[in-house]
Amino acid sequence: MKISAIAGISALATTLLLGGLVVAQNTGAVESLRGADIDLTLPADEIHQQKEGREARNYRQQPPLVPHSIGQYQIDLRTNQCLSCHDWTNAGERGAPTLSMTHYLDRDGTQLDTVAGTRWFCNQCHVPQANAPALVGNTFQPSNGSN
């Protein structure tokens, strides 16, 4: 009884394996996700220039856009170069906007002297503004008096 069950399972597994191989062979050629052959050189996207000046916010509590390049800024577990200008201890002498006090609150609402770990990685919320077309169309309309 056990031998016939094992033989039946083996026969079924072999049939499924061979059937899968036949289907895989007949599905056609593999297509590249990039839309071209691997050896074809595609043109690079246009480089969009940084917009100067500050952009108006579209809704209340929107994180402000960064009005300067951040390409060379180091932000990692130990270093955050944004704070060299925007921390409350430096902002006045650098002429930079200071961080909101919410950046100095921990998750329990306790006031800290340094930026909270939950707000350390600035580019999670703040992005550089660029004169670039929208990646996806939308019909968003800013609210009245949201700035």
TrEMBL record:
Family under the similarity heading: Belongs to the NapB family.
One BP annotation, GO: anaerobic respiration
Record-linked Pfam families: NapB
Chief location of this protein within or outside the cell: periplasm
Protein's UniProt name: Periplasmic nitrate reductase, electron transfer subunit
Annotated heme c 2 binding sites: 103, 122, 125-126
Superkingdom of the organism of origin: Bacteria
Organism in which the protein naturally occurs: Ruegeria marina
Keyword line: Electron transport, Heme, Iron, Metal-binding, Periplasm, Signal, Transport
